[in-house]
Every structure is written in structure tokens, then in C-alpha cells.
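Write out the 3D structure for:
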Amino acid sequence: MRKLQVQGVHHITLTGADRQTSIDFWEGVLGMPFVFDQPNLDDPDEGHLYFDPGDGRLITIFTNESRKPMHSRTPTDPGCVHHLAFNVSRATWLQVTERLEARGIGHSGPKDRGFMDSIYFKDPLGLLIELATYKFEPPMGASHADVMIEAHRIRVEAGDHHIAEVHLADAIERLVERRQSTLSDDRAPKDPYRRG
């Protein structure tokens, strides 16, 4: 038996209501360019809109002019999507509260998640959306996931409840030590300010 190894999210498809609501939210609120438009090839009564969330992958929406929003919150039963999270820059994240409130969009307020900051709000159909920004940049040649797994190991070793900034900083240091060679015989911390 062998795995079916995935290599990233190809796209996520959501069931939308009317076409304009989708365009107004995904492009008009979240700034995702509307990049492709065609009929739903499995249902001639539906449209299929494609948006770029910023990484070249796709969020797609099935639309139908006869569908109307029906939830104040989409179902969270087992097997349902709880929320979608999108990455934003730190500069944008610092503006999210103000920009949501300027549109009259209710939100959770900022949430500190230890390794990232988040804010939650609902799309016009009741789907919970999270905008998140990492508190760290991975070292060259490493991914956010590389830092996260190393920070998790450090957190568990320390017996701490959740990942915090100290675990992230130590994880980045460990990754740099493993990935980058040095001419020094000893890479241990030093004190160049000590007085003899």
C-alpha cells in the first residue's frame, strides 16, 4: 500500500449564492483578483468563478442567481468546514479592524495565537473567515511549517502549554544551525562584552 502524496492545496471550491455577491466579497473585500469565469461543467445552471488568494492557487465559487444566503453561520457539523484562513502581511493585519469596521462588518477582535495573530469575521453567506499574520519569518531555505514543527518540539521539551515567541525564536536558531555551516569550531552563545 502506498500514499497519495499531496504537494499543496490546488484549489478550494465553495457553494456561493449569486454571482455579484461572490465578486463583491472575494475581490471587493478581500482583494482577490477575479481571474477566470466559466460555467460549472457539472451543472449548466451554475457559474464557476475563480479568484487568486495571492499565492497563485485558487478559490473557486459555484454561483446560481436563484440562490440566496441562508445561514447566519455555515454549519459546523462533523465533516463541515469550520473556517478558511488567509495570510495577510503584518502591515495589512494592523489595518484589518479599522477596515472591517469602516464597512460595518462585525469581527472577533484581534486574537493572539502564540505563533500568529488572527481576526475572524463572516462572509455574506455565513462562512467564517480568518485573516492571519505570522509573528515570524522562517530562515532562508525553510518554510513556516519547518519552524512550526521545530517550535512544537521545543514547546513539548519545555512542558509548555502552547507555542509562544520564545519557542519560535529558538526554533529559528536551531534551523539556522542545521542548515548553515560555519568556519567556527564552537557555535555556542558567547559574551563579547565581558570584562577580563
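The chain has three domains: 9-68, 74-135, 144-179.
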